[in-house]
Amino acid sequence: MKTLVDHIVKVGIADLKFAEAPMHLRTSGLGSCVGVVIYDTRLKIAGMAHVMLPDSTSAKKDNINVYKYADTSLPVLLQTLLDKGAKRYQLKAKIAGGAQMFSFSSTNDMLRVGERNVVAVKQFLETERIPIVAEDVRGKSGRTIEFSTETLLLNVRTVNQGTQDL
Amino acid sequence: MASIETLTPLQLDVMKEIGNIGSGNAATALSKMLNKKIDMHVPSVRVVDFEEMMNLVGGPEEVITAVFLRIEGEAPGQMFFILSPEEAESFVKQLTGIDDFSVVNNPDNPMALSALQEIGNILAGSYLSALSDFIGGSLQPSIPLLTIDMAGAILAEGLLEISQVSDYAMVIDTLIDDHEDEGDPIKGHFFLLPDPDSFDHLFDKLGVNDE
């Protein structure tokens, strides 16, 4: 996928960004984190969230970064799209990430966070009735994802498992 | 409570000193393995946010070789030892003589991977034993896990515990110098990420807790 650098909106860790056609949204190095794209198929506007953790109730401090948690980031993602004029029935989602980078045989819940992130994200999208039209989740590989608001394709790149458009 | 965002220069110095001692132990072990003179330096101890941490190793998409250990015991936390692909390949060559090992193109060499795991193990173990001597308590490293993948994907894993209270981590840089004329010394990044609750305990034991 060839794109001009100035067409790319970078989404950091625990971050949330929006873009309109023909811009691309991109986030790099997803491991157990999950990248969530919600977009309006007609208006061609999209938002991408890079969530680290499933649930903000586990936070041990008050002023949290709401973009870090699936349960606080995704509502903002959805609401902002609606505020921008997106129609609920035109919304679709694509998700990637939630890998388990290290195969510990530990009971530590933290090490299964990829799986928990995937579950939390899917739960939110199901509750809001936003269909997940493509996904590349779990596994053991880090992923870099780039979403084109023009083609509505999600490009997923890995180090050893190649590249695919979803 | 001592928090990583408000560490004093003295507290950072103490962590650096522990790094120096740990590196000394590690250099001895490493020079026995390689059968040559090895110097190790600890150039800096820093507190960085997540993005900076990624940038230290070339950005979240950069392919890195990482040895990851979980620390259990008195001051739980995690530890990463990180080498760039070139450094990892150079190290494998020096240790095992394997010269066609490539982190990206030809990574399926059990001997090479095992060598990399071992360097991480030795360095982390040396650091931990220095640290546990200092605090007079015990720290046990888990079995080291080697992963080669994107930096962001690997490092985020170590940030999970911390990220519940803070957006910062402590980084201890090390330099491994084998005194050979060709090329630069192998630069290894050592990331020590004490669990949030561990700082207080550590600094209490070290006698540098401010409160």
UniProtKB/TrEMBL annotation, chain A:
- Example GO molecular function: protein-glutamine glutaminase activity
**Alphabetized UniProt keyword annotations:** Chemotaxis, Hydrolase
Q: Which InterPro entries match?
A: CheD-like_sf, Chemorcpt_Glu_NH3ase_CheD, Cytotoxic_necrot_fac-like_cat
Which domain of life does the UniProt lineage start with?
Answer: Bacteria
Q: Give me any GO biological process, just one.
A: chemotaxis
- Catalyzed reactions per annotation: L-glutaminyl-[protein] + H2O = L-glutamyl-[protein] + NH4(+)
* EC number(s) given by UniProt: 3.5.1.44
Q: According to the UniProt record, what class of enzyme is this?
A: hydrolase
Q: Which HAMAP family match?
A: CheD
So what does this one do? Probably deamidates glutamine residues to glutamate on methyl-accepting chemotaxis receptors (MCPs), playing an important role in chemotaxis.
The record's similarity note reads: Belongs to the CheD family.
Q: What is this protein called?
A: Probable chemoreceptor glutamine deamidase CheD
Q: Which organism is it from?
A: Halolactibacillus miurensis
Which lineage? Bacteria, Bacillati, Bacillota, Bacilli, Bacillales
TrEMBL record, chain B:
Domain named CheC-like protein: residues = 11-45, 111-135
Q: Which SUPFAM superfamilies match?
A: CheC-like (SSF103039)
Instruction: Cite the Gene3D superfamilies for this sequence.
Output: CheC-like
Q: Which UniProt keywords apply?
A: Chemotaxis, Hydrolase
Keyword Ribonucleoprotein listed? The answer is: no
Q: Which Pfam families match?
A: CheC
Top-level taxon of origin: Bacteria
Q: Which GO MF terms does the UniProt record name?
A: hydrolase activity
Biological processes, Gene Ontology terms: chemotaxis
Note whether Membrane occurs among the keywords: no
Q: What is this protein called?
A: CheY-P phosphatase CheC
Q: Which organism is it from?
A: Halolactibacillus miurensis
Q: Which gene encodes it?
A: cheC
